[in-house]
Structure formats: structure tokens, C-alpha cells
Design brief:
This protein is an alpha/beta fold. It contains 20 helices and twelve strands. The site of iron/sulfur cluster has 12 residues, from helix 2 and helix 9.
Amino acid sequence: MHILSKSTYIKGLQCEKALYMQKKHPYLRDKLSIEQRAKFQRGTDVGMLAHEVFPGGIDMSPNSPSQFPKKAAETLANLSNPEVKVMYEAVFQFNDTLIMLDILVRDGDQWLAVEVKSSMRLSDTYYNDAALQYYVLHGCGVPLSDFRLMYLNGDYVKDGPIDVQHLFKMESVMDYVVEREAFVAKNVERLKAVVALPHSPVVNIGTQCHNPYPCDFQGHCWKLIPKNSFLFTTAMDDEMLFQCYFNGVNTNAKMLQQVEPDSEEAHQIEALETNSYYIDYKTLYSLAPQPKPKSVAFLNLLLNRPAVPELDGTRPYEEMILAFALQGEHEHDAAIDPRLRTSQRGDDMAAAEGCFVWDCFEDHSRWKEAIPLLIEKLSHYELIVCFTPQNLSTTLLRHEIIQNQTVGHKVFNLYDILQEARFYHPAIKRGLTLQRLETALFDEAKLFEHSRILVEATSNDLLGYQQAREDLIAENEIVAKTYQHLFK
Ligand code: SF4
């Protein structure tokens, strides 16, 4: 059996301990978030579509890991079979390292290797992936005419059935992977030795825990770090925090002596000590809507950006409005889907009065119907309050829901306001989300992450749709509650 694979090699480049844990103690991994699962699924869907660029190939995917040796032997046999022109997920193993190559195409007496990515631009990790694959292919003696990365073409506009030849772009990385071969060889030996260790290598927590990806063993490695440690502050970058930590500054009291009194760093540490939040009220109040608006609405948009365009006239990752919830005094005749009324969540449904919900979950081609509806509904309000890391004004302008920047002041994004007022709570170390805000302000965590609503809304399941509508309303209620809490 193999020792390394593409994913464990990349993990090992980030942290040797993460590689060891993955190989020897995978059950200690943190649970995958819904967002991460959706990302994997997106990669699989795009990969399947990419096969059609080189049709008629043989799928070499094993049904289970135990089939890897068999599939590797079949792949090698297919290389010398002139009948085989294309292989998908071809399995190769060299020096205890196993890869599955997305597409391998016969090119005269050589082969063209293609690795598919579901994004619109290439990153260092993709180049590192390709370099490992080349190392294995070269080691297996596969003569390559080229090695290309295939990724989504942001200029492609869908017009009828998906035209896979134009949906994807390709870039040769042959020069890069050849040049990196010695580097990969060295790392493969180093990482194999790590896996062979009798115990996990001793690696202190550090910046590598978050870079380039959040490590999924943080639940294990960070378990002895107090939940209110200064390592969870955001006012200093990780580099600086860990430098202090490794220089013996290992308590909040010691850290407080290192920072300026009355500084943002000090306020954050004090917030940790008192298990409360910090906010710069002077800035917050300077940002309060002036004059006080006569009518306020709370808007929660659900946007979808499918990797592969679903509708004619759209590009990869182009945004569409899948749903919105609007809560305000003019929404007395709540046009909530009647199925919501059957919900078990009686309390929430009572609160949903005065909230208008629209969606096109069952037919995405209707998404533009949201635009005139929003134009009409928003015109009744002086202030539109929302919470989103995205620039809602830009979204509303892009869809011509608001006409120009001069009415942009109608949009009051609590996310931006809180960032400007340097809102801090230990729960938001990894980014400010509505769920974490709810924990920080109200000591409750009933919400799920917003990304879950998109999963529900695209589940092709009526119960999922219903849950998505309810969750949009529940989020809007937290936005309203936050606004009241901060500005009333
Ligand atoms: S949490 Fe940090 S130290 Fe632990 S395995 Fe991950 S990267 Fe390495």
C-alpha cells in the first residue's frame, strides 16, 4: 500500500504533525464544515464535466481504497494498449506515493496529463499538486508530451447546453513541474520518514495551524490552550502572537505587560479575561444612521454562485439571488410560503409575522423576479439594515435594485459597522459571522452558519427548502436584534 497521496503530501508540506495525525490518528480530525463538504462536491462535479473535454475515456476510479493496487496495475497495462486513448482518474504509484490523475490522453507515442480545478484561477497549492503528480508519473516512466492544469474560464457565457470546450481553460505547467521534481523528491523522502516515526513528531502550534489552510487537527493540538488565551486576539497578526508565545509570554497577564495600555490589543485581552466583547463605542455611535430613520427594514439575501453556470447568459460563479427575507413595518401581509406554517418552530413563526420571504428554490430561472420585487419593497424604507461580509450596496447596484451610489446610504451593513468599531469577542477569532455575533452579544448560538442555508436551498428537497426559509428568517431576527441592541 502507499504511504503518501496528493492530499497527505500537501498536508505534510503545511505541517509534519498534521500528516502524521492524518495517517495514524485520522479519528482525531475536526469535523468537516458544511462549506468544506460543499467545496469537495463542487470539485467532483466539475471534474466529471471536464472528462467530456476528452470524451470516450476509461474510468479507472477504484470503488474502495483496497482496489488501488489493482487499478494501478490496470492503468499501467492500459498505457501499452493502443486501443486506450483516454483514461480518467488513472492510478499511479511510485516510491510509496499514490496519485489519481484526472485525465490522461494519448498523444502520439506520449501522453498528455491534465489535472482539473474547479476555480477560475490557479494557486500555489495547485502547482504543488501538479509537481507531485509529475514526480510520480515520471517515476512510473510515463512519457509526457505536456502537463496542463484545466480550470474554469471566467469569460464563458452559457448559451444552450454547456459547451465544455469553452467552459474550461488550460495552462501548461510542464516547465514548472520539471523544475520542481528534485524538490518534490526531497520532500517525499522527508515525509515518508515522518510517517514511519513511532510517535507523532513534536510540533508546537504556530502560524502553520492556519496557513495556507486551517488545519483540521486544531481541536486536538489546541486543546490545552485556554479558550480565553491572547492567542485568540485579532489585533496582532499570528506571527507576532506566536513570537511572544515562544518567548515565554504565555499568559494574558504577561501579554498585557507587552502591549500599550488602552490599546486595541489591551482591550481585546481584557475582553477575553472578562469573557465579554469589546467595541469602540465612540466610533460605533459616530457611524449610527443620522438623522434617525423613520422606517427601517432588515434584509437577508441568499446569493448563489454556481461554479458551472446553470442559466443561459451567465458565467461560472456568476451571482444570482436565490431568496430574500425582508422584515419591516410594511410587511404586515407576510407573503411567507404557506408550508412554513406547518413548521414545528411555533415561536419563530410568530416572530416571522411582518417578514416577507421570497425564493426561487424550485426554479432558479425565476431568480430575476426578485429584482422588481426588491425595488418595490425597499422603496418603502429609509434604511435597509443587513449583515453580510459582502458589499450589499454593490450587489444591489449590480442588479439595479438601487440606482446609484447616492442612495447607497440606505444600506446599513452591520458587518462593516462592527469591523470599523473594532468589535471583538473570542468567538470571532476566525472571522465575524452572524452565528458568532449571536454568541458574543446574546450568549446564544441558535443559528447555523449562513453557508448551511445555501446547502438547504440547493438540496432539491422540499424539507430543505422549508428549512432554508426558516433559517433566513431566523438570521434576519438576529440582525434586527443586534441593530436594536446597538442603536436603540
Ligand atoms: S493544529 Fe497546528 S500543530 Fe497541530 S497538526 Fe495542525 S498545523 Fe500542526
